[in-house]
Design goal:
Elements: H1 2-25, H2 29-43, H3 50-65, H4 78-107, H5 114-122, H6 126-129, H7 135-161, H8 167-176, H9 185-196, H10 212-237, H11 248-294, H12 316-321, H13 328-333, H14 355-362, H15 365-382, H16 386-398, H17 402-416
Helix pairs in contact: 2-4, 2-7, 4-7, 4-11, 7-8, 7-9, 7-11, 9-10, 10-11, 11-14, 16-17
């Protein structure tokens, strides 16, 4: 009997330890992705048309795992901090190998003797793996690096940029953004987007009826302008010229320029083209995410940011994949909360689908409008304040979407003829 109780106790203890470990490991999915990408790039692996099956499988996984509002009590948060730094390190290694691929393809050189070093350590022949790379292969590597590497600059780099109490963290966040020309982000995001969210001044809020592609072209330059305004204002308050050497934005741009000049030096103008395409894709991928996170929401400038000013998402897989980024409402209510402690806010509007479906739908404007219009109408009726409803009506009237335009006319009629409303 005592032996039986002992076995039962050991089994329960093992189960508890495994469960606890899983709650930590689930956030290591991004680290797995960047490791897999680095392995693929070193070995010259491309999925071809199998990539469609991978994307389809991820979407099915998003549906299958469903939603969760569970919040674990993490006793060892340092694990996640170490994971973020490891991700940034692997991201920088990924960019280095990508640059090697470009230099080898366009110049026939073994950049920094990297191929020899890899062969000495792993017996992997990178020169053989990348002999005769096709343009399609180079494009795949470009998109892969722009997506996975960009996630380091945007996702976990974003998390580090909010750790303003740790100068090293914000510095590394900017360093991670150099290969993707994203150093402005750590400067703009907090004092820019978090202050202006859901207003016309916000460069991360898409207008009603605005396609993803118009949104990208309209807001990408505004991101840079916002960062410049923030930093020049900081210089003014310090009594310095906006071109002072203390201007962090100029530091970042100088680092980016130096890197892109080096890329040109070692891989030529064609290498620069592919490296620049990877950076451009990172910016587009960023806009893919923010397009769905804030689409169509309105807020009176200067008013308090409340739960209904960002779309929330309770999907379990997205919570793991995006390191908590799907719980976006809580993040906007308090940007200092670490990603593993983010919660779903009960009284916040939610996306109708997970992030992957939302992102894919956003690339097809007619489908996006069909899915998002009922969501916006519900937001207007359920969450908008009277002042926000007025702003929403104006946006509806300009949206070019018949259902939203009809809502605007109904509201105008209710104001003009209250007896018949």
């Amino acid at each position: 009997m005592l032996f039986s109780y002992g076995l039962e106790g050991n089994a329960m203890g093992l189960t508890a330890r495994l469960t606890s470990s899983f709650h930590y490991l689930k956030f290591f999915f991004p680290l797995f992705l960047v490791s897999l990408s680095l392995y693929s790039l070193v070995h010259g692996l491309t999925p071809g048309w199998h990539l469609l099956w991978v994307i389809g499988g991820l979407v099915l996984l998003e549906f299958a795992l469903g939603e969760t509002e569970y919040n674990h009590d993490y006793q060892r948060p340092a694990v996640f901090v170490a994971m973020m730094y490891a991700y940034i390190l692997l991201t920088l290694m990924l960019y280095l190998v990508f640059l090697w691929v470009l230099a080898f393809h366009f110049r026939g050189t073994d950049l920094l003797g990297l191929a020899d070093a890899v062969y000495a350590l792993t017996h992997t022949d990178m020169t053989q793996a990348h002999q005769g790379n096709s343009v399609a292969s180079l494009l795949f590597y470009t998109l892969m690096v722009g997506t996975v590497g960009g996630a380091g600059a945007i996702g976990l780099g974003h998390e580090l940029s909010h750790r303003t109490r740790e100068p090293l963290a914000t510095f590394i966040a900017r360093v991670a953004g150099i290969p993707a020309a994203f150093t402005y982000y750590a400067i703009e995001h907090g004092p820019g987007h978090h202050i202006t969210v859901a207003t016309d001044d916000d460069s991360s809020t898409a207008l009603r009826g605005e396609s993803l592609y118009r949104y990208f072209l309209r807001t990408m330059p505004r991101d840079y302008r916002m960062a410049w305004d923030i930093e020049t204002d900081r210089m003014r308050r310090l009594g310095l010229s906006k071109f002072s050497w203390k201007n962090r934005l100029l530091h970042g741009w100088a680092a980016e320029a130096a890197l892109f000049l080096a890329v040109t030096w070692v891989s030529g103008f064609m290498g620069l083209l592919f490296f620049s395409l990877a950076a451009l894709w990172t910016h587009f991928a960023y806009k893919l995410a923010t397009y769905g996170q804030h689409y169509g929401i309105t807020r009176v400038p200067g008013s308090e940011v409340k739960p209904h000013h960002a779309w929330d998402c309770a999907n379990r897989f997205d919570f793991w994949l995006l390191a908590g980024g799907s719980r976006h409402t809580h993040h906007h209510l308090d940007g200092s909360v670490e990603f593993w402690n983010l919660e779903n806010i009960p009284n916040a509007p939610r996306l109708r689908f997970g992030y992957l479906v939302t992102i894919l739908a956003g690339t097809i404007p007619p489908l996006w409008y069909k899915l998002s219009t009922p969501q916006l109408i519900e937001w207007d009726e359920k969450w908008a304040t009277p002042e926000e409803r007025e702003l929403a009506d104006r946006a509806n009237a300009k949206s070019g979407i018949p259902a939203l335009e009809a809502r605007s006319r109904q509201d105008d009629a209710a104001i003009l003829y209250p007896e018949s409303a």
